[in-house]
Design goal:
- The complex is a heterodimer of chains A (about 270) and B (about 290).
- In chain A, about 40% of the residues lie in helices and about 25% in strands.
- Chain A is α/β, with parallel strands linked by helices and about 270 residues long.
- In chain A, the strands form two sheets. Chain A has a six-stranded mixed sheet, sandwiched between helices.
- In chain A, helix 7 packs across helix 8.
- By secondary structure, chain B is mainly α.
- Helices cover about 75% and strands about 0% of the residues of chain B.
- In chain B, helix 6 runs antiparallel to helix 8.
- Classes of the chains: A alpha/beta (about 270), B mainly alpha (about 290).
């Protein structure tokens, strides 16, 4: 992949906390091309969320550099190149669904007519028509997370950063939202960096899975996922799906991730 | 889509009527218990001739029904009814208290916002702001009244300033706390939008602080009534409830029921201020029912 195509380019990035006593990430180099869906997976505490937060300029690396669309992470943030979805939906209780989606558009100074039109599109995209006027607490957890995704995509950011967005949801809702996210991804052509601790979720969603080792987090392997697009519920029963899940699991294991092995057997 | 909105079903009319009746019944019951306690205490102490902690007689503890009836007697021979006089006094005091509350709440809020944004000011000023509240209002009131009098400010407005003095503190403290109550993730979200401090303040911090702010307003609203009543004393303003209290206090031995009736009206005014804040809160604060402070 050529450097021009890379939306995210990470070079020799390290992050230490506590004045250098704890190394969270060590020597990470990674490129994410336009339109890719890249998952970061690793054992708890391996720094996968930290890596995402560095890319999003929420925290700064100790060394190394991150460019987004050829700019520094900070410049990219100031240019509003990021849409972020957290594990909790982080919706504003005092705003309706429509108003929550409108929040970044207000920051960008869009006029009311343009905002209204976009809100309508986004509500349709995440299939929440007729819930525009509801307040977040009137929605189920899955619906709240869909609002959060709609909000993140509303201003068409170059990069969608998702930090275990479905981690708090039940398995059924999670699988449905996985499908929905893939549909949205193909409809919008966004570039996604997705943090998860679920192996099957990572394989099912991604074009590439980046496996991180236990602390200090290093890249233990990159698994390209060659499952056919568009993926459907049947993809989960494809023998190739199981091979890839096994491949990711073994790399995790080699990276010293015994906790994840336990979680994986539960799935 | 099979996801289900957990919408609270609108209560049917019968349900709401029953709830309202229930609240009414509780109110009547509590009022009856308080009345019973007053009259029971009075009867027992008079019957047993107990004199501790104080002598109970028609002067110290008039019958409640006589206090209520006193409201509908002329305060002076051929004068207007007591309740008419007190109504006008209450309106006058309400004006002072409302203006005082508005000044105090605004100053308190702005001060809270400024302190929240400048840590150094917070460290430097907060001790003095706390100290300001430890000085009895009785000591401050004459200074304010005399001091502002030099600038030709209307007497009632000087009293409003005293009410504001009691009002601003809870608002400042709760504004500070409320502004800092925004979730860290919500702040990161604003950060990711490269939101300005101003946008973060108005779109996140202030809305997050509203439940705290309204808790403060409830305290302040009643405090502003107290401030207005006390402030009237050193200003020698006869028009308000404070003036009425001082006046009836002087004639207490002759007619104690006038003072008690005035106290009832003052209490009612305080309750009215409190309820007004609650009503506005219900209209303004949209929160999950379990999150309303």
């Amino acid at each position: 992949m050529s450097a021009n195509d890379a939306v995210v380019s990470i070079r020799r990035l390290s992050k230490a906390f506590g004045g250098g006593r704890v190394t969270a990430l060590q020597d990470i180099s990674l490129e994410v091309a336009r339109g890719e869906f890249v998952s970061l997976i690793g054992p708890s505490g391996c720094g996968k969320s930290t890596l995402l937060r560095i890319v999003g300029d929420i925290i700064e690396p100790t060394s190394g550099e991150v460019t987004v669309n050829g700019k520094t992470a900070r410049r990219a943030r100031l240019d509003r190149d990021y849409g972020i979805v957290f594990q909790s939906p982080v919706l504003y209780d005092w705003r309706t669904v429509a108003k929550n989606i409108s929040l970044p558009l207000e920051m960008l100074g869009w006029d009311r007519a343009r905002r209204t039109a976009r809100i309508k599109e986004m509500v349709e995209l995440v299939e929440l028509e007729s819930f525009e006027g509801h307040h977040p607490w009137q929605l189920s957890g899955g619906m709240q997370q869909r609002v959060s995704i709609a909000r993140a995509l509303s201003f068409e950011p170059a990069l969608l950063l998702m930090d275990e967005p479905f981690g708090a949801l039940d398995e059924m809702t999670r699988e449905r939202l996985n499908l929905e996210l893939l549909r949205i991804w193909s409809e919008t052509g966004s570039t996604v960096v997705f943090v998860t601790h679920s192996i099957s979720e990572a394989v099912f969603l991604s074009t590439r899975v980046v496996v991180l080792s236990a602390r200090p987090g290093r890249i233990a392997g990159i698994v390209p996922v060659d499952l056919a697009q568009p993926r459907t519920a049947a993809t989960r029963e494809d023998p190739r799906f199981f091979e890839l899940v096994t491949d990711v699991r073994e790399r995790l294991h080699a990276g010293g991730a015994d906790e994840v092995l336990e979680e994986a057997t539960l799935e | 889509m099979s996801a289900i909105a957990v919408e609270r079903p609108r209560e049917p009319r019968a349900e709401r009527v029953r709830a309202a009746l229930g609240r009414g019944a509780v109110f009547v019951l509590v009022a009856a218990l308080l009345w019973g306690a007053w009259e029971g205490y009075r009867w027992l102490w008079m019957h047993e001739h107990w004199t501790k902690p104080f002598l109970v007689d028609d002067i110290s503890m008039p019958h409640l029904h006589l206090i209520a009836r006193q409201l509908f007697e002329p305060a002076r021979v051929n004068g207007p009814l007591l309740i008419t006089i007190l109504w006008h006094s209450a309106l006058f005091t309400a004006k002072e208290a409302a203006v005082g509350f508005a000044i105090g709440a605004s100053v308190g809020f702005v001060l809270g916002v400024v302190l929240a944004h400048f840590r150094i000011l917070q460290r430097g000023l907060l001790p003095y702001i706390v100290a300001s509240q430890t000085i009895p209002i009785i000591a401050i009131a004459p200074m304010v009244v005399v001091g502002l009098g030099n600038y030709n400010i209307a007497a009632w407005l000087r009293v409003a300033v005293i009410a504001a003095y009691l009002t601003f503190f809870p608002v400042t403290v709760n504004t500070l706390r409320g502004l800092q109550s925004a979730e860290p993730r919500a702040l990161e979200l604003m950060h990711s939008y490269a939101a300005s401090r101003w946008a973060i303040l108005w779109k996140l911090r202030v809305p997050s602080s509203l439940p705290y702010l309204f808790s403060a307003f409830k305290v302040s609203a009643t405090a502003s009534v107290v401030g207005a009543i006390i402030g009237e004393a050193p200003s020698s303003i006869p028009n308000g409830l404070g003036g009425a209290i001082i006046n009836f206090n002087q004639y207490y031995a002759l007619e104690p029921k006038n003072l008690w009736a005035t106290n009832l009206v003052a209490a009612a005014l305080g309750i009215f201020f409190f309820v007004a804040v609650v009503v506005v809160e219900k209209l303004v604060v949209r929160r999950a029912p379990e999150h309303v402070a």
